[in-house]
Prior knowledge:
five-stranded antiparallel beta sheet
Amino acid sequence: MGCGGEGGWGEVQRSATALRSVARFFYVHAMDVLPHILVIDDDREIRDLLARFLQLHRFRVTAVRDGREARRVWALGHYQLVVLDLMLPGESGLDVARWLRTEGSVPIVMLTAMGEETDRIVGLELGADDYLAKPFNPRELLARIRAVLRRAGEGSEAGLPAGSALRFAGWTLEPARRRLTDPHGVEVALTGGEYELLLALAERANRVLTRDMLLDLLRGRQAAPFDRTIDVAVSRLRRKLDDGGQLIKTVRGGGYVLAAPVDRA
């Protein structure tokens, strides 16, 4: 059976072109909605392995070898998370982490060498959300990435109504917007980990939370606990709250408490 001459073939070609355009639209749209991960690691083998592995698990990945390349691609895209090796050539990973914090609150998962405890602590103080020591199983990194993205993407926890706010000592924490404002109404930037810690304390105000309880609430027991993680995060949060240890109090025996009444609105 024919296709109706030249006019019929023209119609077929126009339909095929339209279908290709629609397919391209949906492909581009699908790529846009996938979480975009920036991997910064000077080891090409690790970089390529992580890119392929994460792409198989429905992530967009841009992989670069150092801070210079990271700055170049940063201006070209929007990233939901950064996987950052601390042992970079030239500009160190810690310097790159400092730069990232000047650019915003994008979650950071650090890759560290075994035994580099000081670098891990400094990285956490700079606002990294999690860390993983090399060598590591890519599936463990995937679990960490998903957990950090989940924390960063959740607007409300513990049954809080959407849009509700927690007010304490003049401060306002808005879970639906993941935003903290000071007593003058000025927004204070928080990393994902800082936000989760403050939310956990505020939701349980005047209740002592041990380090283990906070690790469970913030990271889950599937992540190996790091003794200094909570201490570092509390110290960083106190500085942002201009606290001086009066709002988030240390309790003998290894715990913390938000020592202020909290109103919900």
